[in-house]
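Input record, target 12 of the design panel.
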């Protein structure tokens, strides 16, 4: 949701904070700010708008200092404005705080603090933290922060500096991400790894309730009971370039083009020397598997769409009933979950609040929990029994692409493995699917090798008011993902619908020139899709179809066809989503949208 960085060391802090924030803008970008300790005071500068607004403002003044905190915001409490931007201060401006998360009981605390004479300036929940610390402060910042967090309900990652403690940066986390970067004569905090990579690859992951006290030379970590704990340093092995655009106009385009490699990276470590799947990270014995009578996949947004394909694949190959649910609904419907349920949480970031809450609910009801996530050390990865990492590499664009494709690959690997273990899938079929799965990076590359028709269509179709995606079976799931991509980055209203449902209502909206994207890759549903395309064509729709190379007769029905290479029906989502991602991307570019940072969105949603 929001991005935090903090620094204590010997270097000038402003450039370090700004550079770190630029790597975290994907987490929120409606305002940004910094607080710097200098000349025996804390100086705060903050602005509504992108980080560039703050950068410009800071370029006209020189603020020296070697201790500071910074923040890039995605508004929850209070509109985006200069005054609601972080950092927030206590009344005298001696203490500055940055925060990611939500303080649920802030109204109560605010009323009380106002009675105590504290003056509030903003509409945010965060400001109570600054005043609370001030209330408890008697010279010891650590103690004041400790006392303050006892009063807080909700989720938070917090960074604090104070005029009275110029040699300390204090931070604390609960249910919101925060890591510590270990340097030489300097130390850092950040919401995510890319913000630190320029300075260090050695990080500590904090646990819930942990507080960290940084000085130039030292890092002390206290657990939720105030006891000092020792943690292992995690060495980040990513290439710095992984978090840079590398010549592409946008991160999203780069990440779409990284998909063939991302598929390989997710597959390769799971295939043993004999060419079989080895899911060492998932500990389910045959006996345990025989007791599992249901699988529940829970996720949000794009990850939910991957979960829908997961349902299809697991039911098809492993013959276990699967429910796929959106995480924000799951725990409010009193779900049937018990010790015979296998629960799979799918989350790129591993920190989505709803998915985490659903996971906790499933655990409370006795389910075995697997996380499928892209972020090592993330909250969801830590709370699951087993973790299956989607090795997509860092995904920076807000709209998910390569993480989605690796989630699909993960779903297929899990389905095939379960199918073989259960004996519901013959070894011949297993080998056949696996061989085809391994050929997909090359086929994905083929799609990316010629995108001229997609660009041409985007240039013609970017002015639509409303776009419909239709498909049947797994094609419907892919259509939903294509539709989500289009709406989030181009702001065109779009809707995905099972093609057979059209005539039950939605077809009323089809008129002359309406753009309909028809995903029609499934042999056994092909004729039915052709009929659905004819239905919308008869009402004046302009139809772009996605079909397999050998399905050329679709050209007689659709206006344009985007072909994907031949593959088995079960695996088409991994290929058919690529033209949809590209179409959404080029339409958004043609509309002049800020593709990597769509309005109102943030990369990880750590609030409910
Ligand atoms: C859309 C998108 C979101 C996320 C959703 C879940 O492009 O990225 O719909 O998929 O917010 O996020 P994670 O996977 O981090 O749990």
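The sequence produced for target 12 reads:
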């Amino acid at each position: 949701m929001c991005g935090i960085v903090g620094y204590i060391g010997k270097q000038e802090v402003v450039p370090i904070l700004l550079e770190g924030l630029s790597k975290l803008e994907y987490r929120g970008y409606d305002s940004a700010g910094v607080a710097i300790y200098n000349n025996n005071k804390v100086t705060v500068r903050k602005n509504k708008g992108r980080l560039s607004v703050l950068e410009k403002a800071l370029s006209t003044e020189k603020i020296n200092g070697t201790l500071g905190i910074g923040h890039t915001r995605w508004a929850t409490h209070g509109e985006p404005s200069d005054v609601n931007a972080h950092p927030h201060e206590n009344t005298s401006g001696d203490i500055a705080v940055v925060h990611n998360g939500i303080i649920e009981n802030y109204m109560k605390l605010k009323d009380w603090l106002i009675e105590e004479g504290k003056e509030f300036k903003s509409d945010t929940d965060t400001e109570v933290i600054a005043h609370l610390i001030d209330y408890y402060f008697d010279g010891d910042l650590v103690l004041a922060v400790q006392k303050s967090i006892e009063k807080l309900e909700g989720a938070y990652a917090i960074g604090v500096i104070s005029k009275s403690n110029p040699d300390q940066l204090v931070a604390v986390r609960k249910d919101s991400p925060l890591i510590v970067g270990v340097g030489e004569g300097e130390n850092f905090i950040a919401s995510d790894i890319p913000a630190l990579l320029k300075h260090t690859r050695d990080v500590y992951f904090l646990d819930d309730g942990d507080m960290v006290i940084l000085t130039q030379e030292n890092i002390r970590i206290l657990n939720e009971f105030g006891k000092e704990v020792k943690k292992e340093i995690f060495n980040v092995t990513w290439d710095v370039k992984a978090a840079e655009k590398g010549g592409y106009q946008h991160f999203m385009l780069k990440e779409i083009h990284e998909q063939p490699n991302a598929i390989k990276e997710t597959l390769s470590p799971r295939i043993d020397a004999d060419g079989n799947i080895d899911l060492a990270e998932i500990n389910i014995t045959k006996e345990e598997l025989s007791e599992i009578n249901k699988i529940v996949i829970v996720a949000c947004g794009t990850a939910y769409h991957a979960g829908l394909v997961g349902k299809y694949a697991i039911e098809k190959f492993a013959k276990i009933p699967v429910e796929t649910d959106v995480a924000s609904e799951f725990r409010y419907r009193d779900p049937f979950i018990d010790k015979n349920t296998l629960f799979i949480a799918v989350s790129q970031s591993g920190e989505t609040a709803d998915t985490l809450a659903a996971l906790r609910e499933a655990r409370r009801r006795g389910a075995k929990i697997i996380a499928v996530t892209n972020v090592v050390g993330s909250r969801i990865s830590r709370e699951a029994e087993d973790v299956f990492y989607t090795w997509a590499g860092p995904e920076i664009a807000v709209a998910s692409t390569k993480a989605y494709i690796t989630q699909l690959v993960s779903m297929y690997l899990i389905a095939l493995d379960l199918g073989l273990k259960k004996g519901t899938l013959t070894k011949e079929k297993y080998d056949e699917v696996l061989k085809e799965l391994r050929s997909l990076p090359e086929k994905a590359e083929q799609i990316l090798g010629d995108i001229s028709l997609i660009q041409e269509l985007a240039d013609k179709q970017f002015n639509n008011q409303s776009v419909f995606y239709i498909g049947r079976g797994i094609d419907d799931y892919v259509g939903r993902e294509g539709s989500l991509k289009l709406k989030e980055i181009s702001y065109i209203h779009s809707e995905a619908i099972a093609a057979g449902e059209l005539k039950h209502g939605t077809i009323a909206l089809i008129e002359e020139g309406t753009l309909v994207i028809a995903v029609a890759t499934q042999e056994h549903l092909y004729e039915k899709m052709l009929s659905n395309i004819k239905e919308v064509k008869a009402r004046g729709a302009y139809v772009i179809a996605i079909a397999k190379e050998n399905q050329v007769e679709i050209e007689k029905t659709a206006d344009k066809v985007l072909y994907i290479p031949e593959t088995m029906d079960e695996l088409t989502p991994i290929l058919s989503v690529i033209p949809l991602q590209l179409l959404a991307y080029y339409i958004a570019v043609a509309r002049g949208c800020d593709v990597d940072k769509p309005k109102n969105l943030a990369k990880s949603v750590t609030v409910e």
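The chain has a mean pLDDT of 94.
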